[in-house]
Design goal:
By secondary structure, the chain is of the alpha/beta class. Helix content is 32%, strand content 24%. The two termini are 23 Å apart. The structure holds fe (ii) ion.
């Protein structure tokens, strides 16, 4: 029998808390399902308008507390800041240019840009995810989404024996929607 995460009793990295924008719950689900994850509803609402969704990287082990990230709708307090920054980015050319420089870095040299990472069993699985995302979400999201794959032998690959996919998007974020969120797709070494 395959080991379940609940059997591991040591300390571990527990979960990541992420958000989606109002009206984008279904889009967030579509994105993480394209990543090969399975979504369950925790039923927990907290102070939010909707329930927290649990996203499981391993469909055969849907532990609600571990090896999971949560998605819920952005709260008004953060929305106010995001909206103020968005307006600022439209009005201030210097800020707009800084933002574009950051987004360019996230798309092209993501190694120092904040992210979390999902593990896949092979480089082929990572490539399959990339194909799935290009076939569906890329058309819908256009510049809101970018997928880059670094493979062994690539000039700018960071780690020689790994395939690393970097998905940069602003549908599911654990920080600022304006700055977007990078999600890494990493193979076993
Ligand atoms: Fe990484």
């Amino acid at each position: 029998m395959m080991k379940q995460i609940a059997q591991y009793e040591g300390r571990l990295l527990n979960h990541v808390e992420t958000l989606y924008r109002p009206g984008e719950r279904d889009l967030a689900i579509e994105l993480v399902e394209a990543l090969g994850c399975t979504v369950t509803d925790t039923g927990f609402k907290g102070d939010g308008v909707d329930t927290f969704l649990a996203v499981h990287p391993n469909r055969d082990d849907q532990n609600a507390q571990n090896n999971v990230f949560y998605m819920s709708q952005i709260r008004p307090e953060q929305m106010a800041i995001e909206e103020r920054l968005r307006r600022f980015s439209v009005e201030d050319d210097g800020f707009a240019a800084d933002l574009e420089r950051y987004r360019h870095a996230a798309r092209t040299k993501p190694f120092g840009v904040p992210h979390f990472s999902l593990r896949y069993r092979s480089g082929q699985e990572v490539r399959d995810v990339a194909d799935r995302i290009h076939a569906s979400l890329k058309t819908k999201l256009e510049s809101r989404l970018n997928m880059r794959i670094f493979a062994p032998g690539d000039e700018d690959a960071a780690v020689g024996n790994l395939v690393q996919g970097f998905l940069y998007q602003d549908v599911v974020v654990s920080g600022s929607f304006l700055m977007g969120q990078l999600i890494e797709l990493q193979t076993l070494p």
